[in-house]
Amino acid sequence: MSGSARCIGGLLPDGSSVRLTKATGHWDTNTPLQVGQVWDIDFDAATQLNPPHVEDVIVKNASLVSTSNNIAADIRSTITPWKGSIGNIFQGLLGFTGGNNGYISKYRGVPDRSTWFWEPDKDLTLRSDNKHYDYKSFFIKRGLSYVGEVPPIPVIAAGTLVRVSLARWWRPDDAPDLEERCYLQLSGWF
User: Fold this and answer.
1) Checking phi first, is residue 152 left (phi over 0); if not, alpha (psi -120 to 50) or beta?
2) Coil, helix or strand at residue 77
3) Which residues pair with 47 in a beta bridge?
4) For residue 3, what pLDDT is reported?
5) Is residue 53 within 8 Å of residue 20, measured between CB atoms?
6) Could you report the per-residue pLDDT of 84-141, keeping only the tens digit for each?
7) To the nearest whole percent, how much of the chain has pLDDT over 90?
8) Residue 1 pLDDT
9) CA-to-CA distance for 43 and 14, rounded, in angstroms?
């Protein structure tokens, strides 16, 4: 969740990941779509895709079918998550800022998707800012921005299924010479 807008992801029966959008843009906080729900959705593929954000679809109609009793098991029965080190996600193309936050860039290479699921092999620990989780390997910390809707917890245990994504292309207004990047995000755990 970012401000009053929501980025809502889903999985199709074939295991494809989608980002559900409205024709007018992102969902606001009043959307009926909630984590763990199963919906029958009629959608069109977005026409202006900017890799790695190739999962965007525009919802035309939707009706609630059911709610999952075990989200993690349902996800694992549909897809194979990335497993292991943070270096294994997004095709190993992540770079890290001086503050240890993950990103991709055109210079480093653009992965084939912007959303997926990961089972880290180490705990993810909440930073004191309550806005980032760190993956610690030896003496190095690698961070993910937390954009989920539920309050963060101090530690997400190794092996927990988490949803990761890449934010839209961005660069700070005060750094016009910096390449645009898509920053690494964690939006939930199951």
Assistant:
1) beta
2) helix
3) none
4) 43
5) no
6) 999 999 999 999 999 999 999 999 999 999 999 999 999 999 999 999 999 998 888 9
7) 79
8) 38
9) 15
Task: Tell me the average pLDDT across 77-89.
Answer: 96
Structure token digits, residue 92: 């190993």
What span, in angstroms and rounded, lies between the C-alpha atoms of 187 and 160?
A: 13
Residue 69's CB is within 10 A of a number of other CB atoms, namely: 8
pLDDT digits (tens, 9 = 90+) for 32-67: 888 899 999 999 988 888 999 999 999 999 999 999
Q: Does residue 56 contact residue 49 with C-beta atoms inside 8 Å?
A: yes
Q: What is the CA radius of gyration of the chain?
A: 16
What is the per-residue pLDDT for 6? 74
Chain-centroid distance of CA 120 in Å reads 14
- 3-class SS of residue 181: strand
Structure tokens at 44: 């069109």
Mean pLDDT rounded to a whole number for the chain: 92
Question: Which residues on adjacent β-strands are paired with residue 146?
Answer: 186
Q: Phi/psi of residue 86, each to 5°?
A: -60, -25
Beta strands in the chain (DSSP E): 5-6, 8-11, 17-21, 27-28, 37-45, 56-67, 82-84, 95-96, 102-105, 115-120, 124-126, 132-137, 140-146, 155-156, 162-166, 181-189
Distance of CA 122 to the CA centre of its chain: 18
